[in-house]
Amino acid sequence: MPGLTPGPAGKLPEIDPPGDDPDLDALLTKVRSCTICEKSLPLGPRPVVRMAKSARILVIGQAPGTRVHETGLPWNDASGDRLRDWLDLSVDDFYDPAKLAIMPMGFCYPGRMEGGGDLPPRPECADTWHDALLGHLPDIGLTLLIGQYAQHRYLGARRAKTMTQTVHQFADFLPDNLLPMPHPSWRSTGWLKKNPWFETDLLPVLRDRVHRLLG
């Protein structure tokens, strides 16, 4: 399975690096020890979240997959490789919590559906922790809403009838520093072919925003 490999120094990014806000670090410690929905998690709890007070970009995705659960490093899989390509960010910049915060809708791997594919993110995570965590991120200049679950919570009635329509109307949400996106999994390959405007219209805007925010 694609994912990160150690760089020239033989090191992967730190899983839980110290941040720049002791209060946020204390809150993250609580989040990472959360067991609210432990009985519903087939692999047990391992909350994955990453941020620092100075972060300028926030990524709200769905929930960790099995590889991320094993490593504790968010987006450490093929989906992460594609997302970093969309953002035009290096591994080092992507995993610098002082630049980019990662707060999924579900912090732990939710398990598999009988017909295949991962279950939806557990709802307890966002209901319990999101508002508190967001209160420690005063400088976010762009929030990526990846997938229908993040878009449902943070766009609400502003969403279009389908995720594709919502993403296609991305310019409507930019004044609020929100950008809806599809999930960058292998399943999106066919979607990208059917919707070439994503690469020609949305990605240049996304990359420009990212580069301006991160300097």
CA distance, first residue to last residue: 32 Å
Coarse structural class: alpha/beta
**Any idea what the shape is?**
globular
Low-confidence stretches: 6-10
Largest sheet: 4 strands, parallel
| Separate helix tally | 9
Any idea what the radius of gyration is? 16 Å
The number of distinct β-strands equals 4
Strand order of the largest sheet: 2-1-3-4
* Mean pLDDT, all residues: 93
Along the chain, the helix and strand elements come as HEHHHEHEHHEHH
The residue fraction in helices comes out at 25-40%
**Percent strand:** 5-15%
Question: Describe it for me?
Answer:
It is a single chain. The protein has helices at 22-32, 66-71, 78-87, 91-94, 124-134, 148-155, 163-168, 188-194, 197-214; strands at residues 57-60, 100-102, 142-146, 178-181. It has 215 residues and is of the alpha/beta class. It contains 9 helices and 4 strands; from the N terminus they run αβαααβαβααβαα. 38% of the residues lie in helices and 7% in strands. The model is unreliable at 6-10 (pLDDT under 50). The protein has a 4-stranded parallel sheet with strand order 2-1-3-4.
What labels would you give this structure?
alpha/beta, four-stranded parallel β-sheet, 38% helix, 7% strand
